[in-house]
Amino acid sequence: LSWNIGRRAIQTASSSRIPNFAFAFDIDGVLLRASKPIPGAADSLALLKKQGIPFILLTNGGGKHETERVAEISEKLNVSLDASDIVQSHSPFAELVKGPDETSALEHKCVLVAGGDGDNCRRVAEQYGFKNVVTPGDIFMANPSIWPFSKNFSEYYKTFARPLPKPVDPTDPTKGLKIDAVFVFNDPRDWGLDAQVIMDLLLSRGGHVGTLSEKNGRSDLPNHGYQQDSQPHLYFSNPDLYWAAAYPLPRLGQGGFREALEGVWAATTGGPSKGIELKKTVIGKPCQGTYEFAERQLLRNRAKNFKGVSDLPPLEHVYMVGDNPESDILGANSYRSGNGSKWQSILVRTGVYPGGEPAWTPTTIADDVQKGVQWALQTSK
Ligand code: G3P
Ligand code: MG
User: Model's pTM, two decimal places?
Assistant: First the structure.
């Protein structure tokens, strides 16, 4: 049975002919490599569109707003997409603007957003609804001595830095600029400055820039003094230690920056060996929360695509096509859906995976995305 029943046919077809499966596509190393289309990617998406088979793009990438990213991908892969068709590493952070309740809402809190080119990520955060966003570049330009080695990049920071919403008050720093949460939206471009600013905040008194808590991080205090002082919560959007970029070998990703920061934290405070974990939230593939967010988006899109069809059949299978066993395969294999869908993983050879026995066993291995989609369409017949 070919699924070639197109969307119009679906509108009138009985719900029994609506596919009970969908796809989730990783981007880097599957659809694109160094922003260039991977052979077969455009045809695969065009086929699924034509056959009315839902899919979502699920990437640990980011650094620009979803609308901007899908516009680029639509153009490169000649497929019409909108912002609801993509989940980026930081997409779930939008839910923290209002939070689950008033007290946890970050909308009006002062948040530091690190990573990405210029202040693209600040602008993404503002488009999500964060109203008071500071970047490490702003803090550097307000006081370049905070990190002596970034002065070579001053011209770069000048192009986007903004005055701080509140000055750092050296006389009584507890009255000065206070950061309530720290986000790493995308790969930091200046690891040194970003790591220094984040460490300062983690060891500060309550997130006040320029202060040093007598308690936080002190392994000689009861409970190691950890978090005796409140401190800004640290959020990472992407665990990828490596990713597939233009260079033939995988490149360090945001997970590399986090590991470096964890190393500095451990050296500074004694770290986990002294019971002082770096408290943080890491989202992105393979985390359950990111897959839940993606599935919610996929189900909303599917309901929208098949609007008007009564008793839409449940989504039973989702085929995750990825190039990174650590994020795409592990994530799909371990995801437990609350909606009854079973996720199967298709590992492709066009990205991070170098061949051989992968660290996490996929449902199947395919040379590229097109072969992977063909396998899935055969399997779902
Ligand atoms: O920064 C992007 C990289 O971490 C991987 O992106 O699309 O392969 O999940 P993706
Ligand atoms: Mg990838």
Answer: 0.92
Phi, psi for 140 (deg, rounded to 5): -65, -45
State the distance between the two ends of the chain, measured CA to CA, in whole angstroms. Answer: 6
Distance CA 348, CA 324 (A): 8
Question: How much of the chain exceeds pLDDT 70, in percent?
Answer: 92
State the closest ligand 1 atom to the C-alpha of 89, by its place in the atom list counted from 1: 9
Atom 2 (ligand 1) nearest CA:
61
What is the per-residue pLDDT across 29-74, written as a single tens digit (0 to 9) for each? 999 999 999 999 999 999 999 999 999 999 999 999 999 999 999 9
| pLDDT for 96 | 97
Task: Please give the number of the atom of ligand 1 that sits closest to the Cα of 240.
Answer: 4
CA distance to 146, 151, 153, per residue, from 160 (Å): 18, 15, 12
What is residue 227's predicted lDDT score, i.e. its pLDDT? 47
Instruction: Please name the residues in contact with 312: beta carbons below 8 A apart, sequence gap of 6 or more.
Output: 15, 18, 302, 303, 306
How far apart are the C-alpha atoms of 255 and 16, rounded to whole Å? 44
Cβ atoms of 177 and 136 within 8 Å: the answer is no
Helix (H, G, I), strand (E, B) or coil at 338: coil
How far apart are the C-alpha atoms of 161 and 119, rounded to whole Å?
8
The residue to mutate among 70, 243, 352, having the most atoms of ligand 1 within 8 angstroms of its beta carbon, is 243
Residue 47 has φ and ψ, to the nearest 5°, of: -60, -45
> Which residue type sits at 66?
E
Between CA 339 and CA 378 the distance in angstroms is: 24
Is residue 253 within 8 Å of 241, Cβ to Cβ?
Answer: yes
Q: Are 63 and 185 in contact, with CB atoms under 8 Å apart?
A: yes
